[in-house]
Design brief:
Kinesin is a microtubule-associated force-producing protein that play a role in organelle transport. It is built from 19 helices and no strands. It has about 500 residues and is an all-alpha fold. Among the domains are: about 110 residues; about 110 residues, no CATH class. Helix 13 packs antiparallel against helix 14.
């Protein structure tokens, strides 16, 4: 027996209802005739009456079915109406979400603009209070803060080296991202950028609760053992690290490491990134022996995943070398730096900034061992390469700054009057704000000359480094003021060009 639809049931019920109604009329007529006849038959009348009762019962049931069908149709119509309202509400909800996202983006942009204006205001106040930069050590420290050098010391150097003006250029500290080799979801990437912005402004009272709330929401929706939770733990650890809360940061990184090893595998690049972050954190606390195996494991993972000659492997080698250097394992330090140098030169070319930085790192290792000659060779290589990029091929008339410095040393010994420094190509222009490694190399080689008793050569390089600082400060001042006042780019470039002629003006004044 086939199953009938609701419409078929209602239609058949109405047909039956009509038939029963007709049959009822016939039975009523029949009972009327039986009661009016001369010969009444009680038995037949009883049978007809029972049939009439059954017919009326069937009519009642049929009417109930029809009414029930009508009621179900009304319910279905109401359901469709409610579904339409739900779809409309979903569309309005999606629109409101888009509006909220746009409003949040505008709010973030406004906060960035406010923060930038505050920094520019502080810088203008600083410019108004500072008049002489050459004679003020505090101004030199402020200049260092304005440099956009991405190379930051992994661990702070000891005070003795700072007194000797030795400024090695160690490799990067933490990874700039909390997740290498792991795609951060869009919502976490936005949150990460917002947290980093607050942290860079020192607004930890906003950044920390923001991270904690996001972490709590992620654990509720995705569970504790999820890569996104590890991402938030890394971000919060970076914020704690910036507040010098190393213990709390280490606990978070250990938790993130366990999650990533469980969810992504023990040899995933994101695991290597967390290992490196944890190693750097231990290094900052002076726990070099605890940090070294973590750094070595991160190196092994990156070698297996990226290949032994990948630039990220070289970065890890730099970190490992610095850890070993703090433990006076100089043979290992030299091996790691030399291998990193080979990778950078092979993969990125001899002019990549990492080449010069790694040579500075290796030279610093040589200095700690008293290998002054080897360190001097590396410093000269960095300065020679910078000279060739800035001034062209070296010849008798076109000499790098270290040759100029040594010639001035010889002239001093021969009791000859040294010519003004500005005549030697304006070498400080090759060590401006866009070449912080060159400035560092100038100071390092100058300090090395001073140890060797070559004071005139040391003064030449240190004077060049000092001029590069003032050049950088002038450029920063002009750029910020021009940006605030809306000076066109052409006018700003012309003023910078005029500023490059500063030394020629000074030379003419002295003459």
């Amino acid at each position: 027996m086939t199953q009938m639809t609701q419409e078929e049931i209602v239609s058949n019920t109405k047909t039956v209802l009509q038939g029963l109604e007709a049959l009822r009329v016939e039975h009523l007529t029949l009972i009327s005739n039986l009661n009016e006849g001369s010969k009444k038959d009680p038995d037949k009348s009883d049978i007809v009456m029972k049939n009439i009762e059954n017919i009326e019962l069937g009519l009642g049931e049929a009417q109930v079915i029809v009414v029930l069908a009508s009621h179900l149709q009304n319910i279905e119509a109401e359901k469709q109406k409610l579904r339409t309202q739900v779809r409309r509400l979903c569309q309005e909800n999606a629109w409101l979400r888009d509006e909220l996202a746009n409003t949040q983006q505008k709010l973030q942009a406004s906060e960035q603009t406010v923060a930038q204006l505050e920094e520019e205001k502080k810088h203008l106040e600083f410019m108004a209070s500072v008049k002489k930069y050459d004679d003020n050590q505090e101004n030199e420290e402020q200049l260092e803060k304005t440099r956009s050098d991405p190379v930051v010391e992994l661990f702070p150097e000891d005070e003795a080296e700072e007194r000797h003006n030795m400024s090695p250029t160690p490799p990067n500290q933490f990874a700039n991202h909390a997740n290498a080799g792991y795609e951060i979801p869009a919502r976490l990437r936005t949150l990460h950028n917002l947290v980093i912005q607050y942290a860079s402004q020192g607004r930890y009272e906003v950044a920390v609760p923001l991270c904690k709330q996001a972490l709590e929401d992620l654990e509720k929706t995705s569970g504790h053992d999820h890569p996104d939770v590890a991402t938030m733990l890394n971000i919060l650890a970076l914020v704690y690290r910036d507040q010098n809360k190393y213990k709390e940061a280490a606990n978070l990184l250990n938790d993130a490491l366990a999650i990533r090893e469980k969810t992504l595998g023990e040899n995933h690049p994101a695991v290597a990134a967390t290992l490196n972050n944890l190693a750097v954190l231990y290094g900052k606390r002076g726990k070099y022996k605890d940090a070294e195996p973590l750094c070595k494991r991160a190196l092994e993972i990156r070698e297996n995943v990226l290949g032994k000659n990948h630039p990220d492997v070289a970065k890890q080698l730099n970190n490992l070398a610095l850890l070993c250097q703090n433990q006076t394992k100089y043979e290992e330090v030299e091996m790691y730096y030399q291998r990193a140098l080979e990778i950078y030169e092979m993969k990125l070319g001899p002019d990549d900034p990492n080449v010069a930085k790694t040579k500075n790192n290796l030279a610093s290792c040589y200095l700690k061992q008293g290998k002054y000659k080897e360190a001097e060779v590396l410093y000269k290589q960095v300065l020679t390469r910078a000279h060739e990029r800035e001034f062209g091929t070296i010849n008798g008339e076109n000499k790098p700054i270290w040759q100029v410095a040594e010639e001035r040393e010889e002239n001093k010994l021969k009791n000859r009057e040294n010519t003004p420094y500005g005549e030697y190509g304006g070498w400080h222009k090759a060590a401006k704000v866009d070449s912080p490694t060159v400035t560092t190399t100038l100071k390092n080689l100058g300090a090395l000359y001073r140890r060797q008793g070559k004071y005139e050569a040391a003064d030449t390089l240190e004077d060049c480094a000092l001029r590069s600082k003032k050049e950088a400060l002038d450029l920063v001042k002009q750029s910020k003021v021009a940006k605030i006042l809306g000076v066109p780019d052409e006018n700003r470039r012309q003023r910078m060009k005029d500023n490059d002629n500063y030394d020629d003006e000074i030379k003419r004044i002295h003459k």
